[in-house]
Structure formats: C-alpha cells, structure tokens
Design a protein that fits this description.
Blueprint (H helix, E strand, L loop, with lengths): L2 E5 L12 H6 L2 E5 L8 H7 L5 E4 L6 H6 L5 E4 L9 H7 L2 E3 L6 H17 L1 H9 L15 E5 L3 H12 L3 E5 L6 H7 L2 E2 L2 H7 L2 E4 L13 H6 L5 E4 L8 H9 L5 E4 L19 E3 L8 H21 L6
Parallel strand pairs: 1-2, 1-3, 3-4, 4-5, 6-7, 6-9, 7-8, 9-10, 10-11, 11-12
Helix pairs in contact: 5-7
Length: 317
C-alpha cells in the first residue's frame, strides 16, 4: 500500500528531492504544501484528509485537526519541541508522536554563548558607534566576573552550563526535576529556586520546554527580581516570556538587555515594540542553524516516520 505523507517542516521541504529514492522504496507518496513558518489549524484542516503520516515543524496539530485526520498514524516532528501538538488527543486517537530530542544541543547552546559574549564585550554597541564616527570605549566585562543562570537544565541547558564553565563563570541552575549529582559535581552548578537564580544571575538563559508551568514563566514580577545589569536570553519558546512585561522592563531599564530567538507570535509582527530597542537582539527562530545537525534530523525524522508507518498498517476507524 502507498502511504500519503504530508511534509510541512520548513527545513525539510527544500531537500525533499534528495530523498526521492527513500520515499519510493518505502511506498511513500509525498504531499507538500507552501509553508511560511508553520501551518495553523485552518491550513491543516484543508490538507490533512487522507494523510497517513506527517513530517512537521511547529504546525498546530489541534484536537480538531487530529479528529479530522482519519488516516493519520504518526506525526514525526522535525526537531525537539512538540508543544504545538495536542498529545493527549493524539494518544486517545492512537496517533503516535515522535521527535528528535537533543538534535540541536550544540548550535542552540552556541547561540546562547554568542549572545552572552556579545553583551559582555559590547560588540554591537561599539560597532554601531564606530559607524557613526564615534570613538567611544564601551564598558565591557569579562565572563569570569559574571554569573549565568540557566532555567531548564536539560540537554541544551547542560551544554550552556558546560560552555559557561569553560569561561570560568559562576553557575546557577533551576529545574523542576532532579539533576544528576554527577553533572552537578562536574560543573559546580548550584541548583537554586527561580527567584534566587533571577536575583543573582548576570545572564539568564531560558532553555525550558513550553508547558502549562512554563507559560509566561518570566512576567512582570520576575523582571523586578532581576539585576538592573542583567541580560535575558531566550532560545526556548516565545511564550515562556510575557512580551509586554519584557517591553516594559526594557523601556524602564529594569534589565540591561535581552536576546530573543523565539517570540509569542512568529514571524515577529513588524509592529512589535521589541523592534525599537537597540539593546534587544532579535533572530528569526534560527538558533538551531547547523547544516550537520539538520542532516542528522532529516535522517532521524524519516526513520521515526517509517518505523511507525510499518507498525500501523491498518486505517483508524
């Protein structure tokens, strides 16, 4: 039998032809649709009928979409985060959800440290001053003088802490689950409450999953606990930060700056007030950028897809 597979992952769509032989060998008919950043519920409802499997990005697989996906057996997420998929409904309907955990640990943690260094050494400020003809020596700091707090000590969070340790930074961590004693001994990280982390850290890196406990985890009360000299970095999920509260903190200089790779609405609207702050670095959800990592994720995503399709040969009632 032929499996109809919807491919909507933006990073996978450009390389579909590379896997033509793979699709043929595994009896897969590819269904591809135009995608800007992700497919919303209404867009998925238009194309999900008759689909056996999906290779998706951050598409909105809501309960309504899943209920209308009568043939769907597997959603193979290209990447790690599966917060846009209603996993409870998927489980109820017998639809398996797969992802590739740890896929982007290195590029994302590299991105965090790039922001840390850029802020600490005032790279962009001095560049802009020079372009304006201003010979001004900005006040920079050495990382060995600084502390970093990581919220979410999973694969990426641990990589950030290991890299920060190489710069001799003081390390703080916060997580809902117990962190292995071996890692704590290796890095010397102090696991503390969120409040203590916010109060003591010069740099705060958000590396948590998006779930009910992390939605707007950083809101107005949390900004009041941070040092006025602190920098906030988010490479996890946009809604972990309440953006109006962040804008207020930047506007009133409650923190020194922020770096955001993710946003509450993506793509970031051109009317977003975040665009006006020179001390707020912005990127288009791209901290996972790494051709080598992408290649590994292509392979893993396909493997997950085919493994489940071969196990579920029937059509769901």
């Amino acid at each position: 039998m032929k499996y109809r597979v919807l491919i909507s992952a933006p990073y996978f769509i450009p390389v579909i032809e590379k896997y033509t032989a793979f699709f043929k060998d595994n009896d897969i008919e590819v269904v591809s649709v135009p995608v800007k950043e992700r497919l919303e519920e209404a867009e998925l409802l238009k194309c999900i009928e008759g689909i056996d499997g999906a290779i998706c990005g951050d598409d909105r697989f809501t309960a309504r979409v899943l209920e209308n996906a009568k043939n769907l057996k597997v959603i193979s997420k290209w990447g790690t985060g599966i917060d846009s998929i209603d996993r409870v409904e998927a489980k109820r309907l017998g639809i398996e959800v797969c992802n590739t955990p740890g896929a982007f640990t290195n590029p994302v943690s590299d991105s965090v440290m790039a922001y840390v260094l850029a802020f600490a050494r005032q790279v962009f400020t001095m560049t802009e001053n020079m372009r304006k003809g201003q010979w001004e020596k900005a006040m920079s700091i050495s990382l060995c003088e600084c502390s970093i707090g990581v919220v979410g000590v999973g694969n990426v969070g641990r990589a950030v802490l290991r890299k920060a340790k190489a710069f001799d930074m003081k390390l703080y961590g916060n997580d809902m689950v117990a962190i292995p004693a071996e890692f704590i001994a290796e890095t010397g990280v102090r696991m503390v409450s969120l409040d203590e982390l916010l109060e003591k850290s010069d740099f705060i890196s958000l590396n948590t999953d998006l779930n009910p406990t992390s939605f707007h985890l950083i809101d107005a009360p949390q900004f009041l606990k941070m040092k006025k000299s602190a920098f906030l970095i988010n490479t996890s999920r946009g809604p972990v930060i309440c953006e109006p509260a962040l804008c207020d903190a930047l506007q009133n200089q409650r923190i020194a700056g922020a770096a955001l790779d993710v946003f509450e609405v993506e793509p970031l609207p051109l009317a977003s007030p975040l665009l006006k702050f020179s001390n707020c670095f912005l990127a288009p959800h791209n901290s996972n950028c790494s051709p080598a990592a992408w290649e590994r994720v292509h392979e893993s995503t396909l493997k997950n897809l085919v493994t489940v399709l071969k196990r579920h040969r029937g059509v769901r009632d």
